[in-house]
Amino acid sequence: MGSVVLDAQPLVALLSGEPVGQTVRDRIAGYRGSWRVVISSVNWCEVLSVLRRHRDQHAAAAASALLGRIPLEVVDVTQELATTAAEFKARFGLGLGDSFAAALAATLGAPLLTGDADFLPLAEQGLRVEWVG
């Protein structure tokens, strides 16, 4: 079974009802059964904080309930993952959350599902980016 890593951006789009949210929902549904869908705990924190800041605490609670409806696994940060994230941050100037999403994808050898253009230079360096726009 392969893995796919989610950046915070696609989940925020899905939970905020953005137009690209349906594309994200379809992609996640397509992974069921044959792919492990994962997000780093740092990126999960990002999802919850963005929803709470821009919407309300109920949106953040809805995001937590999402874990029960889709096969999403929150991966804890290890020292190895943090070290890899630091390398991505220093080398590519990524934000902290983006660094963890890239590090998790690289560590697992998995594609990164995102609509964040900050990852496009990493795609040129070999990171598999699955674009949702």
Question: How would you describe the overall organization of this protein?
Answer:
By secondary structure, this protein is an alpha/beta fold. The chain has one domain: Rossmann fold, CATH 3.40.50. 59% of the residues lie in helices and 16% in strands. The protein has a 5-stranded parallel β-sheet. The mean pLDDT is 89.
The best one-word shape is: globular
The name of the CATH superfamily reads 5'-nuclease
**Main sheet: which strands, in order across?**
3-2-1-4-5
Which structural class matches the secondary elements? Answer: alpha/beta
Which radius of gyration do the C-alpha atoms yield? 14 Å
Q: In short, what is this structure?
A:
The chain is α/β, with parallel strands linked by helices. The chain has helices spanning 8-16, 21-31, 41-54, 57-69, 79-92, 96-108, 120-124; strands at residues 2-6, 35-40, 72-75, 112-114, 129-131. Strand 4 (112-114), helix 7 (120-124) and strand 5 form a beta-alpha-beta unit.
Keywords for this entry:
Rossmann fold, 133 residues, alpha/beta, five-stranded parallel beta sheet, globular
Give the secondary structure arrangement, pairings included:
Layout: E1 2-6, H1 8-16, H2 21-31, E2 35-40, H3 41-54, H4 57-69, E3 72-75, H5 79-92, H6 96-108, E4 112-114, H7 120-124, E5 129-131
Parallel strand pairs: 1-2, 1-4, 2-3, 4-5
Helix pairs in contact: 1-2, 1-3, 3-4, 5-6
